[in-house]
Amino acid sequence: MEHKLPPNEIHELLGVSRSTYYVVINTPSGFYFPASATQAQEIQRLLAEVKMKLDACIPESTPPLLGPAEAPKSQVCLLPVQKKESEVDDNLKRRFRSLTERWKTETQFTSTVIEIVTHPAYQQIIGMGPAIIPLILHQLAIEADHWFWALKAITGEDPVNENSRGKLMDMARAWLEWGESQGYEC
Amino acid sequence: MNVREDIELHFPDLESKGYKVVSPYDPIYNCIAWAAGDSGRWWEPDPMGIYYWPPDVLREYSITAYRAVFEKLGFSQCDSEDLERPFQKVAIYAKSRKPTHASRQLESGQWASKMGKSVDIEHPLQGLSRGFYGDVDCILRK
Questions:
Q1: Measuring CA to CA, which residue among A66, A90, A175 is closest to residue B50?
Q2: How far is CA A10 from the centre of its chain?
Q3: How near does any CA of chain A get to the CA of B119, in Å?
Q4: Which of A33, A107, A136, B2 has a 20 to 30 Å separation from A125 between CA atoms?
Q5: In DSSP terms, which residues pair with B20 in a beta bridge?
Q6: Following CA atoms B91, B92, B95, B99 in sequence, which dihedral angle do they give, to the nearest 10 degrees?
Q7: Testing the interface with A: which of B3, B10, B44 to mutate, by most A Cβ within 10 A?
Q8: Number of structural domains, chain B?
Q9: In terms of residue numbers, what domain contains B10?
Q10: Which positions ≥6 away from B141 have C-beta within 8 Å?
Q11: Which of A114, A35, A128 is nearest to B48 (CA)?
């Protein structure tokens, strides 16, 4: 049974727009994004914890629970979504590059996309959410590779027309045009 | 690690049986497209319908569906991997009953494979067996 709090519900809960901010959870072993059921449950737990702490020690007149900055003493923060590859946070870039390299190496002989996109590194990339769209589009502009599944999963969009199915160059072009129409620098 | 070392790591029988790399890395097409004679598209029965899959063929990862792709192209079951002119032959590999790969036979009797997103190689049919793609499940000819 699927139990998942979709990212847009998290944004709704926090009262911010998905296209403006993304949610990050920092942990001792690194940071991650609320994409899986486990992560969604974790953010709910952290939010409840933060709220309890705030309710207990801060007067009612304090600012909202979480704003566009790191929440005090919590591990949950909101960062602005960037549209340009050059403006994406360096930590995100490093993590994206590392996962991409691992994904490419470990799936180079895999013949089916279903196995390519269910590789753990690719799933972690999808889990990074809308924040990495500029990085994926940048990669796609350099080389047509199998980023379509991730883009569709993250955005819910599919700009590729029926005649272009399977033609990676055409599929890449359709996504890059979509990116430009959404204000991304491709 | 270079591509030959990578290949031999994934397919331990290839080095002793002999093979050659004939084209560079190219993620544009995959093995089943290549075996079907299409080097311009990636063929995939993905459930999200992102990729090309021949119309009227069951969109699923099964031997039945993969065989049906070639049957639509005029191929039918055969028992021998030997070169039988003028027949063209293709082989479908499987692992745990799931299709993993397809090769096509060349005029020389050797087999040609597109290795996922990576290179094209020429090899004996059994050179890929006991490796990353499992074993040959069936051979078809037309």
A1: A175
A2: 13
A3: 9
A4: B2
A5: B122
A6: 170
A7: B44
A8: 1
A9: 3-141
A10: B75, B76, B78, B84, B87, B88, B89, B90
A11: A114
Chain A residues whose CB is inside 8 A of the B33 CB are 166
Taking an 8 Å cut-off on Cβ atoms, the answer to whether B116 and A158 are in contact is no
Q: What is the pLDDT of residues A79-113, one digit of tens each?
A: 666 788 888 888 889 999 999 999 999 999 999 99
Task: Identify whether the C-beta of residue B55 lies closer than 8 Å to the C-beta of residue B64.
Answer: no
Instruction: Per residue of chain B (142 residues), give pLDDT as tens.
Output: 688 999 999 999 999 999 999 999 999 999 999 999 999 999 999 988 899 999 999 999 999 999 999 999 999 999 999 999 999 999 999 999 999 999 999 999 999 999 999 999 999 999 998 889 999 999 999 9
Tokens at B123, concatenated: 């090899």
> How high is the ipTM of this complex?
0.89
Cβ contact A111–B31 (<8 Å)? yes
- Tell me: the pLDDT tens digits for A58-80? 555 544 444 444 444 445 666 66
Task: HSE, CB side, 13 Å, CA atoms: give it for residue A82.
Answer: 18
Amino acid at B55: P
Is the CB of A144 less than 8 angstroms away from the CB of B42?
A: no
Q: Do A114 and B61 touch (CB under 8 A)?
A: yes
Least Cα distance to B114 among B85, B142, B135, B93 occurs for B93
Contact of B61 with B98, CB cutoff 8 Å: yes
State the amino acid at position A168 in one-letter form. Answer: L
Per the listing, tokens 């004679």 go with B37
The residue in chain B having the minimum alpha-carbon distance to the alpha carbon of residue A172 is B28
Q: In this structure, which amino acid lies at residue A186?
A: C
- Residues B80 and B123 sit within 8 Å (Cβ to Cβ): no
CA distance B11 to A49: 51
